[in-house]
Amino acid sequence: MEILSQSVNQTIKIGRIIARNLKSGDIICLFGELGSGKTVLVKGIAQGLGIKRDEVISPSFVLIRQHHQGKLPLYHFDLYRLKTASAILGLGYEEYFYDQGASVIEWADRLKYLLPQNFLKIELSYKSDTQRLLNFTAIGNHYKGLLQNIYKEVYIERRFSQI
User: Fold this and answer.
1) Which CATH fold would you assign to the domain 2-161?
2) Using an 8 Å Cβ cutoff, are 52 and 127 in contact?
3) 0.70 exceeded by the pTM?
4) Number of CB atoms found within 10 A of residue 65's CB
5) How far is the C-alpha of 37 from the C-alpha of 23, rounded, in Å?
6) CA distance 43 to 13
7) Can you tell me the distance from the alpha carbon of 156 to that of 90, in angstroms, rounded to the nearest whole number?
8) Where are the beta strands (DSSP E) in the chain?
9) Which site among 22, 23, 85, 149 is 20 to 30 Å from 141 CA-CA?
């Protein structure tokens, strides 16, 4: 599934739609170059979970930020500064992946061989100063259902409120 976001606000709305469909243990892996909108999408996911989006910042020097004030915990990983995939092993990252919250991983490509077997993959790409292309892929059966639900909600939003 591909979605062309025309603005920051649309990317945040897409994030809120994703959040409405998340369950404990869900993992979202974000791929894309610097400036492609990954953190903006995480802000929308956070807001959709009931977390103030201003609290979501790109962790950069902190690999994991935990947000517990929403309907379920959000574990926000930013692996931009990760030098090797093995450097994350000492963090106990798998405890977050399969805990009671949802994990969103920016720069998931840095995980390499440590990528989970099942996750929702979102590739973001820069199209213009305001436009971002979001390409969704479900890795695993659970995520196929999640993606179908997200697709339905995006379709309804676009049809009735011009997301």
Assistant:
1) Rossmann fold (3.40.50)
2) no
3) yes
4) 17
5) 23
6) 10
7) 43
8) 2-5, 27-31, 64-67, 74-78, 102-106, 119-126, 132-139
9) 85
Tokens 């909108």 correspond to what residue?
37
Listed by start position, the domains of the chain span: 2-161
Both structure tokens of 156: 């309804």
For residue 98, the tally of other CB atoms under 10 A from its CB is: 12
Single-letter amino acid, residue 70? G
Q: What is the pLDDT along the chain (163 residues), one digit of tens a residue?
A: 999 999 999 999 999 999 999 999 999 999 999 989 999 999 999 999 999 877 777 655 667 787 878 789 999 988 888 877 777 777 777 777 777 899 999 999 988 888 999 999 999 999 999 999 999 999 999 999 999 999 998 888 776 665 5
Token pair belonging to 63: 């690999």
